[in-house]
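Troubleshooting: if your tokenizer reports a length mismatch, compare your output against this known-good record of 156 residues.
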Amino acid sequence: MAKILKATRKTVRKIIRRFKEHREEGLKDLSRRPKRSPNKTPPHLELAIISVRKKTGYGRVRIARVLKEKGIEVRPSTVRYVLKRYGLQGRYKRSKYRKRRRFYDFDALYPLSHFEVDLKEIYDKGTLSEESITHASKLNIPPYQWTAIDVKTILL
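Known-good structure output:
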């Protein structure tokens, strides 16, 4: 029978047992949801987290701190999972560094009118070996490099 159904013998035995017990209903797929969750956060703790969130609007770290002051020990990660489960996550806030701020009014500038000047030390011991630094100093290569960039046209 298992070869005909292209299944294991254990599966065939399980189907036959279910059919004998429940008839047609026994052939339907059963829920795979766990019957118990021993590590789930207790309901009274979830209610405390939700009430602090709705009252203050704090994030997970501050909620954990407020509950710790009340004598309830909870981790910020637990708070995060509870807030996610109840749909109380905060909105994504873009940080300021992503916005590109312009330092110049490019419309008012003319080409070759404003330059940015930079000075760089060439003899960097972190990137160059000791031999190359001594070789460059014997050849009287200056230890600095000047760079000037036109702001409007970005010419070097």
